[in-house]
Write a structure and sequence with these properties.
The protein has one domain. It is 61% helix and 20% strand. Helix 2 runs antiparallel to helix 3.
Amino acid sequence: MGKVSDVLAAIGEAGFSLLGHFTLPDDAWWDDFYAPMERRIKELRGNYTGDAEALAILDRLAEEPAMHRIYSDTYAYEFFVARRD
């Protein structure tokens, strides 16, 4: 994670020209990524009820949407479009 200004500087320093950038709306992450991810994790938990290792992996995967739910007001997902000069 970092600041947009730092990424913009790194793009220029790497010899690229910025064509544009935008912040992805938070609902796009929930609708298209986190909600389906949470549903799939729930399904998989049922498939691996006796497998402690698999359940531990699912627990780790479930941390990302949980953290985003708590801290989404402090960060966002930014997309950058650049081309090599």
